[in-house]
């Protein structure tokens, strides 16, 4: 029996590595990286986007398209993120919120209608966050810092970390995330972003113990409704927290003296909500905020790195030259409304000219400009 050719035993990673010649610039090349020598760059967003939908990667990283109108949860999340970063750095987050609110008020009416009363909602979320973690024992060592470390083929993995935190057990990487619902443990175990960040920290000699997720729901706590007779609040079920609930009661009492009554059941409910305030080591019961900690072994970090390295190789050697040959993810119910390029996907499938849609709904810019990588975001200095 003839012996099989040796090349058949070459691994897929080795095959892809063989395509990465010295001058290969990959999907994204940063000429300023490595002290001006330049390097291929990979970020977690790039890896995640390519795994989800190569056609989205084409729109974002080849054509470099950014939507003019940012999705509501994303705009809310980046706004909240900026205020909490300002707070962690010892700045005046309320002054920054006022600047963002002024910029928001200068949007077109249709844009403000689309986003709703976002300034009030965001102020409520952040104010509630401040109260919830009033007894916080964290020490913020660093906020918004970048780490870089090379993959085996020399491509530079770059990540921007929200925070480096110190507590009684040592240093931890942390990431603030806004969600519609707070994720469960399986998400954190499977989450490759946290593993890659920890891998990069280890490779840079940063002795971190693990990863902390600082979760916030992007829906603001609800304000209790005042009945028409103005005597009490509605008994309808509430999705609220202590500061929002108590502030509403005080407001109704002040506006309706001698009429509005704070009942015993209202006081009991306020006491219940107050008991949800964060205390280190106490079970977390808030439905709006949660902090979760997870340590990940070196073996797990190396395993996740190799899986993502494979994705990076596939992405950097992918043929984006023919849009008609680029794979597109099938839609899932959870994806509806969550894709930046949904209009382009539909137009492409229908055989429609994409140019007018691109001109109307997108601008061109650097896709890896991190928290300034989407159109429509507010700027701190304006």
Q: What name does CATH use for the topology of the largest domain?
A: Lambda Exonuclease, Chain A
| Count of the domains | 2
Poorly predicted tracts of residues: 1-9, 371-382
N→C terminal distance: 75 Å
Structural class: alpha+beta
State the name of the first-level CATH class of the largest domain.
Alpha Beta
Number of continuous helical runs: 15
Topology, number of strands: 9
**Largest sheet geometry:** 7 strands, mixed
Query: Helix-strand pattern, N to C?
Result: HEHEHHEHHHHEEEHHEHHEHHHE
- Bin the helical content: 40-55%
Can you tell me the CATH architecture of the largest domain?
Answer: Alpha-Beta Complex
Mean pLDDT: 89
In percent terms, what proportion of residues is strand?
A: 15-25%
Work out the radius of gyration.
Answer: 24 Å
Could you say which overall geometry the principal axes of the C-alpha atoms support? globular
Structure in words:
This protein is of the alpha+beta class and 382 residues long. The protein folds into 2 domains: 10-58 and 72-221 and 292-342, Lambda Exonuclease, Chain A, CATH 3.90.320; 222-287, no CATH class. The chain has helices at residues 12-18, 33-36, 44-52, 54-62, 72-88, 93-105, 109-115, 118-132, 185-190, 192-203, 242-255, 264-274, 298-316, 342-350, 355-361; strands spanning 29-30, 39-42, 65-67, 139-150, 156-167, 170-179, 208-217, 289-294, 362-364.
């Amino acid at each position: 029996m003839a012996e099989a050719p040796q090349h058949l035993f070459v691994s897929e990673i080795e095959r892809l590595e063989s395509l990465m010649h010295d001058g290969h610039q990959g999907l994204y090349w940063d000429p300023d990286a490595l002290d001006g020598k330049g390097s291929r760059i990979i970020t977690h967003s790039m890896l995640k986007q390519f795994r989800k939908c190569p056609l989205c990667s084409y729109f974002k990283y080849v054509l470099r398209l950014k939507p003019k109108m940012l999705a509501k949860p994303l705009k809310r999340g980046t706004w909240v993120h900026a205020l909490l970063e300002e707070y962690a750095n010892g700045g005046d987050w309320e002054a920054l919120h006022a600047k963002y609110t002024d910029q928001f008020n200068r949007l077109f009416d249709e844009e403000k209608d689309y986003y709703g009363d976002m300034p009030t909602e965001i102020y409520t979320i952040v104010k509630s966050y401040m109260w919830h973690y009033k007894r916080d024992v964290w020490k913020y060592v660093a906020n918004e810092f970048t780490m870089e470390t090379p993959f085996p083929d020399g491509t530079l993995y770059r990540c921007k970390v929200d925070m480096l935190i110190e507590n009684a057990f040592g240093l931890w990487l942390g990431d603030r995330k806004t969600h519609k619902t707070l994720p469960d443990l399986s998400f954190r175990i499977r989450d490759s972003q946290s593993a890659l960040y920890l891998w990069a920290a280890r490779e840079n000699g940063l002795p971190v113990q693990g990863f902390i997720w600082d979760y916030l729901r992007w829906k603001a706590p609800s304000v209790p409704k005042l009945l028409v007779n103005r005597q009490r609040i509605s008994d309808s079920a509430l999705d609220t927290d202590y500061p929002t609930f108590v502030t509403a009661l005080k407001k109704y009492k002040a506006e309706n003296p001698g009429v509005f009554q704070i009942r015993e059941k209202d006081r009991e409910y306020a006491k219940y909500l107050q008991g949800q305030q964060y205390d280190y080591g106490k079970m977390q019961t808030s439905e709006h905020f949660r902090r979760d900690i997870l340590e990940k072994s070196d073996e797990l970090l190396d395993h996740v790195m190799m899986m993502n390295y494979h994705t990076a190789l596939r992405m950097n050697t992918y043929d984006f030259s023919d849009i008609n040959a680029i794979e597109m993810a099938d839609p899932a119910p959870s994806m509806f409304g969550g894709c930046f390029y949904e209009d382009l996907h539909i137009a492409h499938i229908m055989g429609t000219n994409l140019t007018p849609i691109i001109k109307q709904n997108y601008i061109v810019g650097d896709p890896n400009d991190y928290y300034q990588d989407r159109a429509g975001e507010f700027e701190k200095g304006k």
